Amino acid sequence: xxxxxxxxxxxxxxxxxxxxxxxxxxxxxxxxxxxxxxxxxxxxxxxxxxxxxxxxxxxxxxxxxxxxxxxxxxxxxxxxxxxxxxxxxxxxxxxxxxxxxxxxxxxxxxxxxxxxxxxxxxxxxxxxxxxxxxxxxxxxxxxxxxxxxxxxxxxxxxxxxxxxxxxxxxxxxxxxxxxxxxxxxxxxxxxxxxxxxxxxxxxxxxxxxxxxxxxxxxxxxxxxxxxxxxxxxxxxxxxxxxxxxxxxxxxxxxxxxxxxxxxxxxxxxxxxxxxxxxxxxxxxxxxxxxxxxxxxxxxxxxxxxxxxxxxxxxxxxxxxxxxxxxxxxxxxxxxxxxxxxxxxxxxxxxxxxxxxxxxxxxxxxxxxxxxxxxxxxxxxxxxxxxxxxxxxxxxxxxxxxxxxxxxxxxxxxxxxxxxxxxxxxxxxxxxxxxxxxxxxxxxxxxxxxxxxxxxxxxxxxxxxxxxxxxxxxxxxxxxxxxxxxxxxxxxxxxxxxxxxxxxxxxxxxxxxxxxxxxxxxxxxxxxxxxxxxxxxxxxxxxxxxxxxxxxxxxxxxxxxxxxxxxxxxxxxxxxxxxxxxxxxxxxxxxxxxxxxxxxxxxxx
Length: 604
Description:
Keywords: Signal, Transport. Belongs to the bacterial solute-binding protein 5 family. The chain has about 600 residues and is α+β, with helices and mostly antiparallel strands. The protein has two domains: about 1-10 and about 20-190 and about 505-600, Dipeptide-binding Protein, domain 3; about 195-500, D-Maltodextrin-Binding Protein, domain 2. It is built from 17 helices and 29 strands. The chain has a seven-stranded mixed β-sheet, covered by helices on one side. A hairpin with a 3-residue loop joins strand 19 (about 415-420) and strand 20. The protein is globular.
């Protein structure tokens, strides 16, 4: 569904007085809706632009986002941003799509003007390579959904991939400086995640991060019978519908994939999102002159009892690079893990437990390539044919690997598939032969016989399930508006978990279209977004405004948030756009307004 931006779709809390000589954003919207002309200091330039209107049209754009039952914060952000754009003279509509439809339109079909949503991010800044490198501008997935192409940025991304240590930090800073100038997307805020858990059933909730595998491993049972089942509640039904680790439409984060599949190396996080890359399926690795030598742990098996060997590892990396396995008219790469696999120039089997990776990167980025899920060749090798889905038009070159629901899933992870009912539950069982259960392996291990993922669509009812002892933890983060209503001080049975995250909310531009391909236009739009006000109002204070998409440890002082974005300061105050300043900024960027106060752009 879609709605035009206006009084009916914007938050009431945004009403305000004129700012810096401008008019209230709500007043601007009302005046625009009534067909009134709003006088501004740029009226002379408006008249001049009105004389010659040939070849230019009023700018109209659509913000694609999720509805309230998909992501309450995303739609609220979209409405506030739409109101700011309307105040600046841009006709703006909002199109709300379900989780799958949103990701399909943005990541696969690239069918959007701009969008508002949550980017999965990553603790390591190497994710920027696949997010922005022009090589991926026409591919599917989180690799460059913006269609952004800039050879200078490409060069800087390649430099940060090749660098190590302090040189890498300098190279990352160079990338961030270019992004602050180009603004292919606008980072808005990084939410503070909250989850409710039962402390009387399990201890150890703060030992791992609940958006990763480590949050569900190593828990200590506190009540008789609790070791039999860990009861989680999800507000997202997709884990009960699709278990394909390569599918971009059904995977936001890799929590379920983490539990079903193992990588060669895994980030082992604590609840504070501090993590270390640890050997997982790999027993050890060494990096020497561009070659990464990996030794697997002995006697590894998949859930179906088949042996996991170096052949499966070679297959995985080749398959992720081209799921058509060379049989198509062109490569059909996986829409997930693409950037990590691209760091590998070649992988060679030495013997059943030894491999050599020829890397195109420095050691830091090379090690990140070890974090992709290892797939069983005997399951996935038959999925390289062209996909056919009844009643759905599939893009040419799409393979079955990218469309299968992969139920039942067969991996080697700490839990294995047991059962599911669409939109009701997903049930996993402990994998008794998992590598972490070995006495000589010091890694967090599964401590329960069964992990049940119950589907419940709302935070309020998910909280009720935990309070009523029908669930042990809300695995998906709670919506921010409910956090203040949770009171755990009067009971020892419940605990409210707070954890930082590396994912972030952002506004993304489809730079394949005009005027979104113009960096000057994107810069001014970035200046219409009051990140600090949005973090307070939309997230009830449970978010941190950000100026860069990387975590704090990788953000240089010059680009760190300091009472505002140092690169694109907000043109207004307290969420209200200074309309005169906004229009002057657009005009200085080369755009013009007509006599009705509409921003006009040349059509092609």
